[in-house]
């Protein structure tokens, strides 16, 4: 467990995360590719989370990774000199923010391709003549529209070629705040609502600050609780 009284005490407390949504063939992938290049040019680190509603093929049948998963492994990692890939079995619903916080903690901007039904995510909707010409996102989640047709909406509207303007919007309009209390149980991150975070923070902070030698206003507390002895410790 890690506790911090200030969100900005984390290495990257102001991670920005936004979903690029729209119908198939609307131009989402092209837009994301161009945004990656523009945001990287501006000095940002960027990662992409792709929503695959119909599943995906990552470990090809017959390959070692496929055989390990077929045998019942909960996960497989593949490491090369310049790449790392992790395939895990998903048992519970995992939202995009949780994935971003666990795997891309050191990244400045996360682009989600898809995820229109994911509540709470800020979204840029992509429209295209003859494919989709009407905004479908809720006004509360929509931060901009990218369209090659005229759209009547009370949000910024950019042409698909206005990559600089779209990047400006992404830099200034939204951010995902990392929680001040992070709970990991046996390697799995557990999401805590604000109320539970505050309770844990107050309890642990009260105990810690009562100890001799602890400064009055600690900014970061890391607490590990190990409940099972290692086999070597029993010898």
Mean pLDDT metric? 79
Rg, rounded, reads 22 Å
CATH class of the largest domain: Alpha Beta
Query: Quick one: how many beta strands?
Result: 12
Derived from helix and strand composition plus strand pairing, the structural class reads alpha/beta
- Per DSSP, the total helix count is 6
State the CATH architecture of the largest domain.
Answer: 3-Layer(aba) Sandwich
Largest sheet: 6 strands, parallel
The level of helicity is: 25-40%
| Low-pLDDT residue intervals, each spanning 5 or more residues | 3-13
Task: Tell me the series of helices and strands, N- to C-terminal.
Answer: EEHEHEEHEEEEHEEHEH
Distance between the termini: 28 Å
Instruction: Quote the CATH topology of the largest domain.
Output: Rossmann fold
**Could you say which overall geometry the principal axes of the C-alpha atoms support?**
globular
